[in-house]
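for the recovery benchmark. tokens below, seq after
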């Protein structure tokens, strides 16, 4: 007996890129609905993930469509893109080097070894722009720029161990100074000319994540702009993984071309069953 579509399982992959975890669908017959993505990405009640991407072969490259955990599409997620390269290699679509078509343009990817994937990227769409965001009685100074998606980088002078990532990140993420789109909020501490540390609050996930690839590049760009870093440099993320940023910069410290390399691995292949969609609304307590 043929099961109705609502009762059929769906093959899915689970991947992690430096602590950002994703669900992935390879050449699905239809794109998942936003409510399905929200359900699947809900931690505790379903599989849980920072986002989901679909992957398909198009001519001589791979096309990736990325969705945040809230079900909304995003133009770019670099850790997701590195995971897409890992999955394409696992599926036999590439011998290690490939082009990935994203919502922010074409990205060159190289599967370096069993754990590392490197992306070669165009410069940021904008130079770091100083902005002030007022929260209560406090003015927060930072650097705003587009690296596929909007980023706001706070150059944090003290240890990130006690940084108010969850509370301040949530307050800044939708701040009016960033317009309707809001921004990812990066807490960044430069510890040496070739090393920085970063914690990330991401829109769409609406929480701290263990890594953010676009945020690593945005933080590097802001620190370069302020003369605090030089390339190549290494970033330590909340997941404990290190990312390598390399490239060339102009006389003002703006990247002319750069690359991002770090951990990206396939964790599991699994079947999504109808129960994974059954996520109730949050309770209203009496």
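predicted aa per position
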């Amino acid at each position: 007996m043929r099961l109705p579509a609502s009762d059929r399982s769906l093959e899915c992959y689970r991947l992690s890129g430096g602590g950002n975890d994703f669900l992935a669908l390879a050449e699905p017959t239809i794109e998942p609905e936003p409510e399905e993505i929200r359900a699947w990405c809900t931690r505790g009640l379903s599989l849980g993930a920072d986002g989901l991407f679909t992957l398909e072969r198009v001519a001589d490259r791979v096309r990736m469509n990325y969705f945040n955990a809230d079900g909304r599409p995003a133009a770019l997620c670099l850790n997701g893109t590195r995971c897409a390269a890992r999955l394409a290699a696992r599926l036999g679509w590439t011998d290690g080097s490939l082009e990935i078509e994203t919502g922010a343009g074409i990205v060159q990817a190289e599967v370096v070894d069993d754990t590392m994937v490197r992306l070669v990227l165009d410069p940021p769409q904008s130079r770091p722009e100083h902005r002030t965001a007022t929260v209560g009685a406090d003015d927060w100074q930072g650097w705003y720029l587009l690296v596929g998606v909007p980023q706001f980088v706070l150059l944090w002078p003290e240890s990130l161990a006690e940084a108010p990532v969850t509370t301040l990140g949530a307050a800044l993420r939708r701040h009016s100074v960033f317009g309707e789109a809001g921004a990812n909020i990066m807490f960044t501490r430069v510890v040496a000319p070739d090393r920085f540390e970063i914690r990330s609050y991401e829109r769409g996930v609406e929480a701290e994540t263990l890594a953010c690839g676009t945020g690593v590049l945005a933080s590097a760009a802001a620190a370069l702009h302020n003369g605090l870093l030089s390339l190549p440099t290494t970033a330590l993320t909340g997941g404990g993984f290190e990312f390598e940023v390399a490239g060339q910069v102009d006389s003002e410290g703006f990247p002319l071309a750069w690359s991002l390399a770090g951990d990206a691995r396939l964790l599991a292949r699994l079947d999504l069953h109808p129960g994974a969609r059954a996520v109730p609304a949050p309770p209203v307590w009496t």
